[in-house]
Each structure stands twice: as C-alpha cells, then as structure tokens.
Amino acid sequence: MENKEIKLELRNISKHFKGVYANKNVNINLYKGEILSILGENGSGKTTLMNVLSGIYTPDEGEIYINNQLAHIHSPKDAFEYGIGMVHQHFKLVDTFTAIENIILGLKEKVTLKEALDKASGIAERYGFKVDLKKKIHNMSVSEKQTVEIIKVLYREVDILVLDEPTAVLTPQEIEKLFNIIRKMRDDNKSIIIITHKLNEVMSISDRVSILRKGEYIGTLITNETNERELTNYMVGNKVDLKLERLKLLATKPTLEIRGLNVLKDDGTQAIQDLNFFLRGGQILGVAGIAGCGQKELCEAIVGLRSYKGDITHFGESIVGYTPEHIKEIGIRMSFIPEDRLGLGLAPNLSIVDNLLLKSYRKTKGLFVDRKSARKEALEVMERYNVSAESVDAPVKNLSGGNIQKILLGREIGTDPNVIITAYPVRGLDINSSYMIYDILNEEKAKNTAILFIGEDLDVLLTFCDKIMVLCEGRNMGIVHTKETTKEEIGLMMTGARNLLEMYPEKKYGFAPDSLIDQKKEEVNK
Amino acid sequence: MLVPFLRETISMAITYLFGSTGETVIEKGGNLNLGIPGIMCLGALGGVIGVNTYISIFTVNNIMAWLLIIFALIFAFIFAAFGGLIYAVLTVTLQANQNVTGLALTTFGVGLMKFIGANINQENLTLASRSISKLFKPELYQKLGWFGEIFLSHGVLVYLAIIIAILTTLFLNKTRKGLFLRSIGESPQTADAQGINVTLYKYFAILVGSGIAGLGGLYYVMDRSGGTTFVEASIEAFGWMAVALVIFSMWKPGIGIIGSLLFGGLYILPSFLKISNVQIKIFDMVPYIVTIIVLIITSVVNSKNSQPPASLGVNYYREER
Fold it and tell me: How far does CA B76 lie from the centroid of its chain?
C-alpha cells in the first residue's frame, strides 16, 4: 500500500454552517487505484466533506492537493476539470429529460445526441450496465437512476469518483452488482471514495477506511487489519458519563400498541416494514437507528399525518383512519422533530402568544380569538420552563433553539397527553437546555404518560430510556432493556448485523404479553 | 365580416405573443417574472423614445422606415432588458422574493411610461407609426383576396413575433444551450453539479426574455394603436394576459402562437358583435377562464410534459443546507 502514488490529499479542511462545524481539520489521503470508505454516523460531516471536494461548498479553511499540486476548486465545473466526479445521495437528475440528455448536460465540447449515445453505450457495455439511455428519468426505477448517475460521471472520464451512500436505496443483489462495477473501476486505476455508514459494506468493498465523528477526523485504518467492533468504537466514540436520571416506575398496561405497521416514504419506497411494538404508561421507549431508516415516517404515521397499513390501537381501541385532530383529542401528542422544528411545529414569524393560539383557538367560541388567556398561558409556559425571550410578542424565530424547543414542548404537553412522540428533542441544543428537556420528559413520565423517544446519541438512550427498540432500514431488529444491553450490541443491531427477531423468534418481540388487543378479542369471543 | 375579424385577431394576438414568448424563456430558466406588464410598458416607452431619437437626428418628413424601425427595436429591447436587469439583480444575485420583485417592477414600469410618455409629441409618433405599420406590407396582398387581407396586410413586427416564437421553440428544444437552460428551470442543483453556470444562464434568460416581451409594448404603441402613448393601462392588462398565456401554452412557444390567436380573437370579438358594454366584460373574462380550465386539465392529467418547470419561482443558492 505504501508504494502507491497519492492521487488526492485533503489537508486541514474545515467548514462550518452558522457557527456549527460540519468539518473540522479533516485530513484524508487517497491513492491511485484504491477504494477508500469514509465511515461515520449521520451528521458526522461525510457529505459536507465530499461537497467541498466536488466544488459545491467552499471550505472555510484547508487545501486540496491533486497529484501533489494545489487544486483550486470553486465550483463543480472546476472539480470536473480536475477529474473529480460525484454521485450524490439525492440524485441530481432532471426528471423530465431522458438519460442521455442528463448525461450531456453541462458538457463543454459540442456533441450531437447520436455521438453522445454511442459513447455512453460504450461505457455501459464496458462495465455491464443495462439501461435504456433514451428513457425519461421519471419512468426509471431507483437503481436505473443510479446507473445513469454513474454513467454520467464516467462519461466525463473522471479518475476520482465519489459515491455518496450509493447503497442506501438498492436491494442486496443490486448492491453486489454495484460493488463488482466499483471493483472494475479500481482495476482501471481509478480512485474511488465511497461514503457509507454500513460496516459490512466497508469490510467487503474498501481497501482502507477513514472515520469521521461529529465533523472531526478520527483516523484511517487498513480494512484487512480491522474489524467491525473496532470500527464501531471509532465511529460512535467512547462512552460519556451522563448524569441522567432514569425514573423507576411501575409500568401500566400497554397504552399504544402497534401491529404489522407498513409505511411508505414520499418516493414510494418502504420506510417501515412489518413493525410491531407497544408503549406503556410511565415508560420511555427509545428508538435507535441510523437517520433516515423510517423514524420520521413512523412518527407521522402514529399521529395520522401519513397513511399506513397495519393496526394502531390506543388503550385497545383501534385508531386506524383517525384524523390528526382526533388523534390529538384522545391524548396522543407529537412534539419536536427539529429537522423541521420551525416548519412543522411553530410559525416562525408569529409571536409566542400567536403560536400558542394556533393550538388553543379551537377552545374559544365566537368570532374573535381569545388573546388574553393565550397571553396568560404564554407567560405560564415561559415561567415554568424558564424560557428567555424579550417578550411574549417577539417572533419565535428570534429565539434560540433551546427556547423554541421549550415553547413547543410547553404547548404540546400543556393539555395532559397520555402519549408523547418525540424525535431528536435535543438536537442542536446546548447541555443545559438538553437537561431541561430531559427533566420535562421525566416529569411527564412520572404522570404515567407513555413516551416514544427517537434519539441519536446512544449514551443518552442507554441512560435515559427504559427499553430501546432498534430499527434498521425500517425493520425491527429487537427490543432490549437498557439495563441488559451494551452500546456495542445496539451498534451491531443498527447496522443489521445482529437481528434479535431472527435469533430468538420464540421471544415475540414487540407483542405485549398483557396486550389489550388480545384481551378485547377474547371478550368479543366470549 | 369574417375576413376583417380574422385580420384583427392576428393583429391583436401579436401583443400577447411577444409577451408570452419572452416570459416563457424566463420561466424556462426557473424565474417567475410577474414584472412582464411593467416590462412591456418599458418596451413601449423605449420604442417611443427610439422613434423620437430618430426624428431628432433625421427629420419627420421622408422617413426611412427601415432605419426608423431599427431604432425603435433597439431602444425597446434595451429599455425592457433594463427592467429585466433590475429583476435579475434582485432575484438571482440578491435572492429577493420573485413574486414581490415582479409586482414591484410592474408598478414601476407602468408608472414610468405614464410619466414620460405623456410629454412626447403625439403628432410625430402618429406619423412614425404610419410608416412602421406599413413596412413590409407587400403591395400584392390586395391581389390575393381574403388570403392577402388576413395574412399579408400586417406590419413587419407581426412577422417578427412569429419568427421569434418559432426560433425560441427551436432554441429550447433543439440546441444544447436550450437544454442547459431548461435543466436550470427543472433542477438548478443538477445543472450546477454538472458544471453549468446557473447565474449566467438565468441572467441571459431574464434579459433576453424581457427584451422580447418589451417588443410587445413597442408593437402595441407604434403599430396597433397608431402611435398613441396613453395606452399604458391596456398594455398592463395585455401583460397579465401574456403571463396567463404562458400557462395556457404549457410553456411551449409554438402552442403560444395558437393561444395568442385565441386570446386575441376573444378580445376582438365584441367589437364585431352588436352588444352592450356590460356584455363586453364577459369576453374580457373568457381568456382567464380558459386558462384556469387548462390548468385544471393539466393538473388532473398530470403528464410530466405539460407541467411548469419544477423549480419555477424558487431562488437557487448553492450552499443552502
């Protein structure tokens, strides 16, 4: 490995967005004719780094060297001139164009469609792609689209190829096919970077692996000399001691039971597949999983914002087909999905009072809204949760993330819910605000509320929740008691390497022994 | 009765056609320019000033029509493109809201024309207009009976509008640059990642598109209405019709030619019927109703080929997260 030529060198790359570092002093080398994996959890800055390389983001600091020469990359056009091509995770294709039209987009040289077709089919044949280049993109399957993306990059004769999570949307068979193609490219002396968070893929395809964690460069290992466990440790970091309290309560009967849930993503692919689980009052069920493996769709399905197949019961009553309003009425609340904290939860330009009114206006009768009581409520929320804002009439978008979170929380749980669905409630918050949120959730738990807590920090999940359900690509990998598990076990389950459902089918994960659904059925039978 | 009606239909349609062709070019690049009515007024104003400049350099007597129209065209194009430049700087460079910018531009263009247009010597304009609308009218049209009357009795700008509409269709559908421009309207992220200069193309589309739309104003003042500058109100209304026509034509300038004839015919029809002023208003509504029906049909059918550019109205900023 040492005697290979260095093709690309990233030196001290830093990039931040609004004060938050997405990349901090990242150093990565890439040799000629090798496959390098970049491994990291979601939000660890992998994609940002590659966007810097392909000219979409300008780094705040750092230099890029190609063939030992300083490269100036200010736009994707420059990147192509240095022979860098990127296949983005979210395909960059024009839906209404044909494949070949997409391929010739932005080409400098004047080619006729026919010439382009000849060249592109040549490439397709060489690597064994099967795709109709005259087909429109919107008529294509995901894997066909990806094929077009790859041909598009190869057409430009790049010698550094970046693939951003290329396997996320493919079936295992398609992945194997893709890997063979990638290996063939390596044999052609191209340098390939593959971004992924799947450990088994890292092990099977790459020569070396570089690890990022929270935007920082952790190190580079030779794949043959490491193993999945070591990589997991590097990826998630060392255990941090949190002084989080886990209340020990007597759990009630199942509050919410979910059976055979199937939910689709916006693009029609499967988000949640045959999911069974239940929530008990006075218990927090944590959900672990790599981002984008169905968490958002799961929340939306429960609160009625997304259609689904399967059965959801609340105290034994089926709530299938209820409107979101009705679901709220019976006491199920969803709060804070901070990726969209302002978009879905609060109206950014309205004041705190007005945002509380959005919820409470239904209670008032008559033509005009009852601003006075809403103002009182706003002051209560501010005092109770220690919200710092200049006034209750200031637009919420001017508040800090933590304060926005508290207001949203205050509004949602102000009306005594019996189920709270919460996703990433502390993302982007400082330590103190985070603990405030945990305390509030613990208070709710003490009131026998059932809580579904979708988190990303495994340490928090392990100390804060009673049980953890692990999702991998929308499927349940098993539900474990936090007292009886380890971070490593959960890590392996998140990547799909350990599937408790398959290992112990007799345990019936996700079915409550004292299920109210079964009880109801028996009553009916009697 | 039918022959003069069809002749007038074509004559009227041309104002819309210029406007909608220009707006189509702009929208294909992903910008929804609601400043078109104002830009058409700016075009009319530019044309009038161009004519005046010609007269002040040469004389009113013995007008060289070809030279006069070149003056008018250049001035109209530049004035309208200047309106486009304001819009482009605000929306593309400064990322301002496209709708607000467009509406402000309309108010500005209409006002400026009112302000300057009122002080311009009407007699000279009437004379100049006469020679512009006569230009290129082949003498033999009278010998061709109804055919000549309907199709060949127009001024040169009418034929120019149709040629531009056809050339625009060819540009958008048959050239590489046209493909690149359309890709920006569909997905600027994709275009950018492919190394296309999004900003440059957007500026190009907005400036050229505005220039073309401005010729509609020039045509209306200097040809159809015979050189009167007190028509800003109707130009503004025609501008809105042009925007509606873009939707009606499903972003295809070729269909825009047919659509403009339909809109023009509906506008002309009442003056050929003996009806009251109130009933005329019904005809004013029809083009909008037709446009709404087209929108309903295309939405229901939901064919990918009749949809607006996917990123229409959305500003593009590369480092957005």
Answer: 12
Amino acid, single-letter form, for residue A413 = I
Q: A65 and A33, same structural domain?
A: yes
Indicate whether A366 and A423 sit together in one domain: no
Residue A431's pLDDT is what?
61
Question: What are the chain B neighbours of A59 within 8 Å (beta carbons)?
Answer: none
Tell me which of A415, A450, A471 is where a domain ends: A415
A473 backbone dihedrals φ, ψ, rounded to 5°:
50, 45
Q: How many CB atoms lie within 10 A of CB B277?
A: 7
Same domain (yes/no): A121, A161: yes
- Strand A419-423's sheet: what is its strand order? A332-335, A419-423, A450-454, A284-288, A467-472, A475-481
Q: DSSP class of residue B89?
A: I
- Average of per-residue pLDDT across A422-448: 79
Are residue A30 and residue A178 in the same domain, yes or no? yes
- Answer yes or no: is pLDDT of B21 > 50: yes
pLDDT digits (tens, 9 = 90+) for A179-222: 999 999 999 999 999 998 778 888 999 999 999 987 889 999 99
A299 and A410: one domain?
no
Secondary structure of A190-259 in the HEC alphabet? CEEEEEECCHHHHHHHCCEEEEEECCEEEEEEEHHHCCHHHHHHHHHCCCCCCCCCCCCCCCCCEEEEEE
Q: Which CATH class is domain B2-306?
A: mainly alpha
Do A431 and A295 share a structural domain?
yes
Interface pTM (ipTM) of the complex? 0.87
pLDDT grade for A43, boundaries at 50, 70 and 90? low
Same domain, A229 and A322: no
Spatial separation of the C-alpha atoms in residues A195 and A215, rounded to whole Å = 14
B190 touching chain A per CB within 8 A: yes
Q: State the residue range of the domain holding A393.
A: 336-415
Residue A474 belongs to a domain: yes
Domain ranges of chain B: 2-306
Is the minimum CB–CB distance between A107 and chain B shorter than 8 Å?
Answer: yes
Confidence of residue A240 (pLDDT cuts 50, 70, 90): very low
Contacts of A75 in chain B (CB under 8 A): 192, 195
Q: What is the mean pLDDT of chain B?
A: 90
Question: Given an 8 Å threshold on Cβ–Cβ distance, is B176 in contact with A107?
Answer: yes
Q: Which of A189, A213, A236 is the last residue of a domain?
A: A236
- pLDDT confidence bin for B297, thresholds 50/70/90: confident
What's the domain count of chain A?
A: 3
* Cα of A92 to nearest chain B Cα, Å: 5
**N-terminal to C-terminal alpha carbon distance within chain B:** 62
Alpha helices in A243-348 (DSSP H): 295-302, 324-329
Q: Is residue A52 part of a domain?
A: yes
Q: Are residues A360 and A449 in the same domain?
A: no
Residue A340 falls inside a structural domain:
yes
Asked if A75 has any chain B CB less than 8 Å from its own CB, the reply is yes
